[in-house]
Amino acid sequence: MSNRHQRRAELADFRRKASGALLTYLVSPDDRALDCNPLLRTTLARWRASIAQRRPFCPACRANFANEAEPGAFLFATATVGPTSASVSAFCTNCWHDLPPDAIEREAARVLQQVIPNGRFLDPRARQGDDPAS
Ligand SMILES: [Zn+2]
Q1: Above 60 in pLDDT, residue 134?
Q2: Across the strands, what pairs with 79?
Q3: 32-63: burial string, b at 16+ Cβ within 10 Å, e else
Q4: Which of 19, 24, 88, 106 is the most buried if burial means most Cβ atoms within 10 Å?
Q5: For residues 29 and 88, is the Cβ–Cβ distance under 8 A?
Q6: How far is the CA of 132 from the centre of ligand 1 (A)?
Q7: Is the distance from CB of 33 to CB of 73 less than 8 angstroms?
Q8: pTM, entire model
Q9: How many angstroms separate the alpha carbon of residue 24 from the centre of ligand 1?
Q10: Distance (Å, rounded) from C-alpha 62 to C-alpha 36?
Q11: Helix (H, G, I), strand (E, B) or coil at 24
Q12: Quick one: CA dihedral 39, 18, 122, 99, positive or negative?
């Protein structure tokens, strides 16, 4: 009933805490990074627990995780310094396996724009080719 409202409130809360600097993680469900990052693990557990209620969907193809879609990768965003909350979106297995990396990154950047307006995409995968000296 108030799912949408609740989600907005959480996003607003997150936005406030993030204050511009954003750290992103693009990980598969079995990634070991989740084991050593309690914040991401907790965020993911909450995401899984609320699938039926919130009906999250894949940002690339709109497949709904409450229906047939299976998560192939999770996109987390947290504040760079002292993060106490994280946002999470999931790409479905089809998109994760079929879409080229640049398409995934484009979709991921679009998702992050909704979390942090003008938020920069800091995943190292998106920075390949950048000249650090420039
Ligand atoms: Zn998809």
Answers
A1: no
A2: 22
A3: eebeebeebeebbeebeeebeebebbbbbeeb
A4: 24
A5: no
A6: 33
A7: no
A8: 0.71
A9: 19
A10: 30
A11: strand
A12: positive
Q: Indicate the angle between helix axes 3-18 and 101-115, nearest 10 degrees.
A: 90
User: Which helix (H) or strand (E) segment is 23 a member of?
Assistant: strand 22-27
Residue type, 90: A
Q: Which of 66, 125, 123, 73 is nearest to 95 (CA)?
A: 73
Q: What is the reported pLDDT for 28?
A: 87
Residues lining ion ligand 1 (Cβ < 5 A) are 58, 60-61, 63, 92, 95
**Residue 123 Cα to ligand 1 middle (Å):** 20
Residue 110's region, left for phi above 0, alpha for psi from -120 to 50, else beta, is: alpha
CA of 81 to the centre of ligand 1 (A): 31
Q: How far is the CA of 26 from the centre of ligand 1 (A)?
A: 15
Give dist(CA 48, CA 90) in Å, integer.
10
